[in-house]
Amino acid sequence: MEELIYRSIQRKKIALKILNELDLIEKWGEVGEVHLVGATAYNLMVNHDIDIETFCDIPCPQNVFKVLGDLANHSGVVEIKFHNYMNSPFKGLYSKLTYRYPDNTEGILWNVDMWLFPSNHTGPLSRDLVGFMNKVITDKSRKSILDIKEHLVRLGLNYPSVFIYRAVLVDGIEGINHFLDWINNQDLKETFKLETLTGVIKE
Fold first, then answer.
1. ω into residue 102 within 30 of 0, thus cis?
2. What DSSP string describes 67-115?
3. How do residues 9-52 score in pLDDT, each as one tens digit?
4. Going by DSSP bridges, is the β-strand pair 49-56/108-118 parallel, antiparallel, or unpaired?
5. Model-level pTM?
6. Could you give the C-alpha distances from 97 to 49, 117, 133, 174, 178, in angstroms and in order?
7. What gap in Å lies between CA 178 and CA 74, rounded to an integer?
């Protein structure tokens, strides 16, 4: 097995352990319909990040804080944040926790980003990209994406993953130098939306 893919698989195993230790899927499942999204769902993990989207009829902060209150009791949780974006274009409630894994002073800090959206949300959602991404990614493109992601971490550069997916899956970019040349020619103000990928990638 390619070392890049092996590392990604190992990171996902830890991510799933964290989800289990915190009972995150079960806790959010009491609020609404839960979806594991992002790099964890695509098997493209490099950073220590987990993303969850939950959907219910009427999102309210009280439901979020019930979940966050339960999570705060776990010794591995070192920080929790909340932001109400219901009156913004995001139209959701955002919360984030930082978790130390393993649960000791030597553990690595993981970030868990959690969104609660109304079920009738009409904007771009990572939930809607999971099935598509897992369908179109090949072994070759997976290695290219992971290679670029790992190099960006080592270089201390941070770009939204959707740029990397677009570069590799649409424009056939391979390797960090090729990617950096490509990104320098993009208009970063015109951020690629998640939903545009499904329209430009040829199945």
1. yes
2. HHHHHHTSTTEEEEEEEE-TTSTT-SEEEEEEEEESSSTTPEEEEEEEE
3. 999 999 999 999 999 999 999 999 999 999 999 999 999 999 99
4. parallel
5. 0.89
6. 10, 18, 26, 33, 35
7. 43
